[in-house]
Amino acid sequence: MITLVNGRRTDQVSIHDRGLAYGDGVFETMLSVKGEIPLWDIHLARLECSLKQLNIQPFDTNGLFDMIKNNLDKTRQQIIKLTVTRGIGPRGYAPPIPCKPTSIISITNREPGDALLRTNGFKIKLCETYYARQVKLAGLKHLNRLEQILARMEIAHTGHAEGIMLDQTGKVISATMHNLFLVKDGAISTPDLTFSGVAGVMRQLVIGLAHDENIPVTIKEISMDELLSADELFLTNSIDGVWPICELDSTIMTVGEITSKLQAKVREVIPSCD
Amino acid sequence: MITLVNGRRTDQVSIHDRGLAYGDGVFETMLSVKGEIPLWDIHLARLECSLKQLNIQPFDTNGLFDMIKNNLDKTRQQIIKLTVTRGIGPRGYAPPIPCKPTSIISITNREPGDALLRTNGFKIKLCETYYARQVKLAGLKHLNRLEQILARMEIAHTGHAEGIMLDQTGKVISATMHNLFLVKDGAISTPDLTFSGVAGVMRQLVIGLAHDENIPVTIKEISMDELLSADELFLTNSIDGVWPICELDSTIMTVGEITSKLQAKVREVIPSCD
Fold this sequence. Notes:
- The structure is a homodimer.
- Chain A is of the alpha+beta class.
- The first copy, chain A, is about 25% helix and about 30% strand.
- The first copy, chain A, has helices at about 20, 40-55, 65-70, 115-120, 145-155, 200-210, 225-230, 255-270, and strands at about 1-5, 10, 10-15, 25-35, 75-85, 100-110, 120-125, 160-165, 170-175, 180-185, 185-190, 215-220, 230-235, 240-250, 250.
- In chain A, the strands form two sheets. In chain A, strands 7, 8, 9, 10, 11, 12, 13, 14 and 15 form a nine-stranded mixed sheet that branches. In chain A, strands 2-1-6-5-4 form a five-stranded antiparallel sheet, covered by helices on one side.
- In chain A, a hairpin with a 2-residue loop joins β10 (about 180-185) and β11 (about 185-190).
């Protein structure tokens, strides 16, 4: 594993870093394939948007790409985690002005996933832990992730690959580490993330690919009933690409045509994503 | 400043610590006076309760007290920050089982506050950033504190000492780093924290002291209207003790008898708290 903190080879950060103290920062998890980062532009755009929303400024993203790329293995798939925190600060919630952000990069080799599950589908369940509604943080991949941890703990021993999280009003938001799409009558919908959840990079890519294929996509509030009556369900994230769902609690789902088509389209953009 | 990570003198922690990755941990901020920690028992009880709620187990709290006490300065007031995270883990929200928690201690000297403000009162304002309602995290002093950071940023340049935060339904919860009490007709009330906010150690102490003084205390939902029509308002936290409020936005408040009485009572428990 390669680890860099502010460009220096180390795996240590200060205990006074606000990322540790308060979760005051954001992160991106990216896939590299043979030394290339196919979705870099979308990741960078989201990173910059998140930093702006949290006013973690100034942070120069210019050197990041080369710094990461120079450390990639050109023979394989790797997972890059890029964290940017507000940096070191004194005790107290008030951010230092100006702040001096900390960049943290780790690069690990990716082990191949289970090809059979990627074809036949994953089993998932509904979690009890919900997402709170917070318009100022929704969409961002920030470092305050206790809700997803609590939800993930619910499926630690159940044999499910993922857990579905609702918001506190009962609307479907996402899985704990994947975005969620449903297919009904040839059209796609995915939950509106104005108040909760993470707006994933793969979600954005898949919406674009569906448009290219003339498959209608709607971003909207989605209920559990709609989810259970969907023709197909699939999950997405930057590392896993498209995961078909074959079972949601006791409901058996079909791995359908549209899911498989989008899975193939993602594979064209990111050759070894699946 | 003295810093200890897992009992070792260092100010560095692994970038793979889940405290940094996800805010997966809790903290306590404590005041020491001449080498003693007057509210240790309440802090320890809250810490253990928070760790249990987040299932950060097993963590042996037995050695903590001596470890901290041996590093205190017996001549002055100091601020102790004790953080316990779930420790190092691989990428992903799923906690390692069992986890090996990280304890992080920092001890800094406390500078004296402004005595005049502590007598005459502080000016505060209402913040726009609200607390989301999350029953599984409410009350805990966990490391996911972006909401309070965003609220605190709102008063960075306004000249206010603190900002009041509501929840998303408009109920009053607390200030960004203090709990909140209001006095009306000789009785005290403080917001119910079932869904949002941090249940402060000083809040607990003050509730007990008020009971001792036969001042009725109610924990309940509180509206902004009730706040504005209070006879007295005060804020509490472990370091500041009791802060009287003299102005909430454009409303002038009186620093009244009950606030002053409780301030004095806290000073008896923690001699140099104010």
